């Protein structure tokens, strides 16, 4: 009998069948290749081999045949994921409660194999064991599946051989975890949970890639081994292009020296490093040269650049693409346009359209990285394996939310010491992670040493706190400052502020521009091009330039104004804002950057900005009392250090507190909330509430949805998605979505609900995607809550 894993009806009605045997073997192979570089290939292979063992039944055969033929079936009615769990626990787990490392390996493999369609809680909110429940899988189905698995995939002898090899690879990791957890069981179990996620990601990658290859009738894609030749060729290309760069001015010379020092640091051992480069010091190019040199020497599999804001990502991506001149090896991933179902017992085909980070160079956002580490969506878990043996360059690392410092720091430890990743923490205002409750392990040395003489070249601005005023008073204040300069940039904390000020100040006598996250990527790129053109023509046409923006312009945008006004937020924001002023030393002396407190702004939806603003205002008071202690400069190392002390001192909670009194850190470690005195099952070691934690994790306080907007080519892409051919062609869908990345805007849940009520959102591809009605997109400010409205009600 043939046991089908997948069935495909082609255009000519011919049926293509992929057997369970072929699918399990292919999944195991891909999973093993994902983790081969970090010596976890045997573990991944075994988990992938058994993951669909439960499909070896007549019941599933009937189910998949009916479903593929368009028959009426109840999705998920034939459970197949429990079979692998029972097989692994019964074969390799001691039933007498005498717990050993072999038991932990068996549990971890069982969890991974059983969670490939969605994670589950090892102990849930009702104090029940997730393993015990799944061990009760139908006896007849289990015996049938076990017999057929032994016949087609691996008999008992082969299974035990695979387990012995897998366990031998797990032991060094267990030893590392035990020796680096500071006697804190929470750290131990958190690391074990991260290990489970890593293994699960390899199986999901194997399962989804093999399924997509079958559906598209193509060869499977597996990670290439030893691509050091690629890194070497790319580095030579960068060096050749750099040779033509001018080095006449002091700033040009300083940037060249910093870039060269970064390249030389590529020989340093793998680990976690800090990269402190002054604003405007060429951090993007320097980190690229370092990454390529390091990747070539240590045969890294992938280079991943992350940025907190799309504006930074766009600028960094432009620099990287320009120097590498090879778009085929670069994946720019900054949004999840496809809406993935959170609850599903079977494979949701829309998952096959979501980016899996299978390119050599990834350019993505901090949000996508944090989701990859902690979100419960299977598409996010799938990407985790891509971090292994990688170089991870985290730009503006100070933007990691304070409430998740514990999760972030421990994840960095795991990535560095278990996954073989080299991590670069970039910031001109380095936070003191070593003072966190759960710090990053070891000393994070500077990638390049501090050089006061070199750094002094970049002192082009002065930070000045200019007091407090209401929003309605700020337009007059801006006009007064505009009188003394040819160009002025105003950076706001909210879209409401930027929209209000833009409307109040735009006139024909000045070139006035608006920038915010309410505009799609391409819209912002076009606006920045216009701003750059206007700035270059100020002297010719005697017309002043004014830009009202949110923080999206704050970092990573190579643009220079004569003066900057920044609404008070964090001091890292202030320093970054200063980087948009007198950037190339156009003015003699130091140009002013004014920090003003908008007294009536509402930041209740932005608690992180509110906390940062409070810490900054505290610093201003301390500075006024004793400026000498801060070297008479708000941007001095002493001032920035004091700011972070104010911020972290007020931020007692770093474990990602939840409304019910527990924390995400607890759910992902010892899970005291659920595995308390009411929990009776004691034979299992893993107790994490993986599913619950994954559901509750959000980088922002509100969940966001990415929608396609009708700006420029976005309109035609929306029409293409409505076409009949796109409905059934997975390859065409992915191609359209790749182009649509430039035409998306993220909206909060309350905005989505409001737009749906007003008919402003259109569902595409059966709710898989959302597109915005043209009346709700303004060509000056972007997304609007009502047709023709210029008012923003959201922050």
What's this entry about, in short?
The chain is α/β, with parallel strands linked by helices. Strand 17 (about 760-765) and strand 18 form a beta hairpin. The longest helix has about 30 residues, at about 185-215.
The tally of structural domains comes to 4
Main β-sheet: number of strands, strand sense, barrel status?
Answer: 6 strands, parallel
User: Overall mean pLDDT score?
Assistant: 89
What fraction, in percent, of the residue positions are helical? 40-55%
Class from secondary-structure proportions: alpha/beta
Secondary structure tally, helices: 30
| Gross morphology | globular
Question: Separation of termini?
Answer: 60 Å
- Rg computed from alpha carbons, rounded to a whole number of angstroms: 27 Å
Residue ranges: pLDDT <50 for 5 or more in a row?
789-795
Q: Strand order within the widest sheet?
A: 3-8-7-4-6-5
Q: What is the percentage of strand-forming residues?
A: 5-15%
Q: What's the count of strands?
A: 20
In terms of topology, how is this protein built?
Elements: E1 4-9, E2 15-19, H1 20-34, H2 41-50, H3 58-68, H4 82-92, H5 101-114, H6 130-134, H7 139-152, H8 156-179, H9 185-216, H10 228-242, H11 250-264, E3 272-275, H12 283-298, E4 302-307, H13 310-324, E5 330-333, E6 361-365, H14 366-374, H15 378-383, E7 390-394, H16 405-417, E8 422-426, H17 452-456, E9 461-469, H18 474-482, E10 487-491, H19 495-505, E11 511-515, H20 521-536, H21 538-541, E12 545-549, E13 563-567, H22 571-578, E14 591-598, H23 607-625, H24 637-650, H25 664-667, H26 690-696, E15 704-708, H27 714-722, H28 724-728, H29 730-740, E16 744-748, H30 749-758, E17 761-764, E18 769-772, E19 777-778, E20 782-783
Parallel strand pairs: 3-8, 4-6, 4-7, 5-6, 7-8, 9-14, 10-12, 10-13, 11-12, 13-14
Antiparallel strand pairs: 1-2, 15-16, 17-18, 19-20
Helix pairs in contact: 1-2, 1-9, 2-5, 2-8, 2-9, 4-5, 5-8, 5-9, 10-12, 11-12, 23-24, 27-29
């Amino acid at each position: 009998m043939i046991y089908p894993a997948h069935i495909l009806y082609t255009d000519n009605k011919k049926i293509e069948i992929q057997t369970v045997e072929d699918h399990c073997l292919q999944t195991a192979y891909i999973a093993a290749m994902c983790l081969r570089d970090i010596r976890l290939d045997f573990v991944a292979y075994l988990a992938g081999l058994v993951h669909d063992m439960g499909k070896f039944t007549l019941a599933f055969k009937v189910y998949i045949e009916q479903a593929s033929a368009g028959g009426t079936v109840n999705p998920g009615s034939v459970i197949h994921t429990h079979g692998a769990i029972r097989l692994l626990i019964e074969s390799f787990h001691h039933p007498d409660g005498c717990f050993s490392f072999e038991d932990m390996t068996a549990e971890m493999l069982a969890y991974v194999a059983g969670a490939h369609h969605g994670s589950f809680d090892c102990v849930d909110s009702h104090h029940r064991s997730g393993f015990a429940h799944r061990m009760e899988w139908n006896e007849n189905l289990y015996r049938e599946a076990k017999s057929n698995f032994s016949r087609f995939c691996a008999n008992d002898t082969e299974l035990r051989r695979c387990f012995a090899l897998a366990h031998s690879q797990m032991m060094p990791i267990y030893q590392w975890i035990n020796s680096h957890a500071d006697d804190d069981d929470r750290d131990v179990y958190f690391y074990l949970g991260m290990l489970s996620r890593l293994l699960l990601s390899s199986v999901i990658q194997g399962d989804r890639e093999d399924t997509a290859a079958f559906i598209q009738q193509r060869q499977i894609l597996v990670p290439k081994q030893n691509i050091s030749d690629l890194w070497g060729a790319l580095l030579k290309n960068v060096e050749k292009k750099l040779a033509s760069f001018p080095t006449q001015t002091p700033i040009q010379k300083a940037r060249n020296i910093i870039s060269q020092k970064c390249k030389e640091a590529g020989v340093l051992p793998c680990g976690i490093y800090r990269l402190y480069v002054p604003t405007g010091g060429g951090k993007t190019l320097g980190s690229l040269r370092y990454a390529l040199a390091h990747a070539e020497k240590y045969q890294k599999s992938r280079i991943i650049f992350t940025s907190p804001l799309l504006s930074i990502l766009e600028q960094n991506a432009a620099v990287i693409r320009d120097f590498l001149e090879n778009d085929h090896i670069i994946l720019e991933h900054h949004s999840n346009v496809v809406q993935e179902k959170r609850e599903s017992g079977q494979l949701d085909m829309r998952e096959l359209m979501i980016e899996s980070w299978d390119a050599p160079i990834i350019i993505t956002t901090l949000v996508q990285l944090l989701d990859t580490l902690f979100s419960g969506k299977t598409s996010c878990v799938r990407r985790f394996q891509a971090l292994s043996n990688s170089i991870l360059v985290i730009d503006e690392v100070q933007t990691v939310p304070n409430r998740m410092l514990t999760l972030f720091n421990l994840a960095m430890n795991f990535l560095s010491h278990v996954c073989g990743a080299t991590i670069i923490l970039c910031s001109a205002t380095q936070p003191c992670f070593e003072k966190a409750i759960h710090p990053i392990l070891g000393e994070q040395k500077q990638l390049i040493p501090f050089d006061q003489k070199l750094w002094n070249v970049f002192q082009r601005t002065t930070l000045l706190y200019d007091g407090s005023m209401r929003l309605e008073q700020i337009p007059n204040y801006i006009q007064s400052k505009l009188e003394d300069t040819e160009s002025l940039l105003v950076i706001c904390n909210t879209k409401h502020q930027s929209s209000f000020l833009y409307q109040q100040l735009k006139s024909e006598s000045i070139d006035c521009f608006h920038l915010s996250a309410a505009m799609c990527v391409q819209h912002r790129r076009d606006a920045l091009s216009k701003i750059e053109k206007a700035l270059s023509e100020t002297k010719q046409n005697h017309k002043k330039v004014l830009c009202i923006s949110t923080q999206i312009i704050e970092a990573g945008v190579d643009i220079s104004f004569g003066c900057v006004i920044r609404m008070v937020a964090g001091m890292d924001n202030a320093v970054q804002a200063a980087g948009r002023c007198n950037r190339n030393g156009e003015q003699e002396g130091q140009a002013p950057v004014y920090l003003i407190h908008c007294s009536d702004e509402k930041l209740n939806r932005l608690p992180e900005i509110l906390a940062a603003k409070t810490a900054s205002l505290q610093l201003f008071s301390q500075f006024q009392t004793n400026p000498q202690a801060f070297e008479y400069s708000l941007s001095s190392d002493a001032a920035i250090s004091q700011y972070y002390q104010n911020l972290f001192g007020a931020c007692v909670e770093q474990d990602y507190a939840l409304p019910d009194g527990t924390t995400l850190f607890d759910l992902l470690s010892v899970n005291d909330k659920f595995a308390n005195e009411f929990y009776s099952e004691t034979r299992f070691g893993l107790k994490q509430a993986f599913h619950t934690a994954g559901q509750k994790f959000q980088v922002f306080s509100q969940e966001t949805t990415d929608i396609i907007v009708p700006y420029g080519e976005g309109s035609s892409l929306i029409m293409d998605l409505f076409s009949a051919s796109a409905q059934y062609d997975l390859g065409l869908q992915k191609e359209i979505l790749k182009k649509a990345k430039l035409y998306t805007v993220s909206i909060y849940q309350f905005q989505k609900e409001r737009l749906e009520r007003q008919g402003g959102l259109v569902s595409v591809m059966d709710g898989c995607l959302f597109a915005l009605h043209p009346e709700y997109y303004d060509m000056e400010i972007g997304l609007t809550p009502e047709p023709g409205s210029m008012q923003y009600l959201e922050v």
